[in-house]
Specification:
- The protein is of the alpha/beta class.
- Helix content is 35%, strand content 20%.
- The chain has six helices and nine strands.
- It has a five-stranded mixed sheet, covered by helices on one side. The protein has a two-stranded antiparallel sheet with strand order 5-9. Strands 6-8 form a two-stranded parallel sheet.
- Strand 2 (30-36), helix 2 (42-52) and strand 3 (56-58) form a beta-alpha-beta unit.
- The two termini are 30 Å apart.
């Protein structure tokens, strides 16, 4: 299978995690890496480039001129929802890495069987299972669901599904009263908005900071 892996956010321990990531995706697959980080230290960026050999990447600083809490009128206090700067950059990185993949496909015409979105600072304890992926279905590991949301660390599916997943507009979702400003809740709201089916997979994993 040809798999596009979309890495977003921090590049912490990317070199140490390389064997685990590639092994659990499957060394028999043709894997292309794409990445969007922002202001990662030069040594980490160089490690990532040298080890993962990404097709395309960006480490440009993220600048945004909106407040994702604007328009929120829910009962829960904003202090319940975490760091809004980190949250905003999280979703912008997902948007940016998708655009890198989209531009590459437009340029080359290459077709991918699977698109996998993940954090590079996660350790996997068993292998991904990409057998017989269904249309209009997103695959997300069991666990790490918070505030009536869904695990936002890892997801995979066919390319049209992952386009919808990675092109999330958090500002619009919050301003239209569809979600609270919280990453897992926003992720689930976006999935439901696109009428995607969700399959939870038994992929054991943990963040290694």
């Amino acid at each position: 299978m040809r798999i596009a892996v979309l890495v977003y956010g921090r590049l912490n321990k990317c070199k140490e995690h390389h064997f685990n990531v590639v092994h659990c995706i499957g060394t028999n697959n043709n894997i292309d890496f794409f990445a969007s980080s922002d202001n990662s230290p030069e040594n980490l960026l160089n490690d990532f480039i040298n080890v993962y050999k990404p097709i395309s990447y960006t480490n440009e600083p993220i600048h945004y001129d909106y407040d994702i809490t604007k328009g929120y009128s829910g009962e829960k206090p904003l202090t319940d929802f975490g760091n809004f700067n980190n949250m905003t950059r999280h979703f912008i990185n997902k948007n940016r890495v998708w655009k890198l993949l989209e531009d590459y496909i437009t340029k080359t015409g290459i077709r991918y069987d699977i698109v996998l979105s993940l954090r590079i600072d996660v350790v996997y304890q068993n292998n991904f299972n990409f057998d017989e992926l269904l249309d209009n279905t997103i695959y997300i590991p069991v666990g790490n669901d918070y505030l009536d949301g869904i695990n936002d660390q890892i997801a995979y599916g066919k390319i049209d599904v992952m386009q919808k997943y990675n092109s999330i507009n958090v500002k619009e979702l919050i301003e239209n009263g569809l979600s609270v400003p919280h990453p897992e809740t926003l992720t689930l709201t976006n999935i439901r908005l696109h009428n995607l089916q969700i399959t939870r997979v038994p992929l054991s994993h943990f963040i290694d900071r």
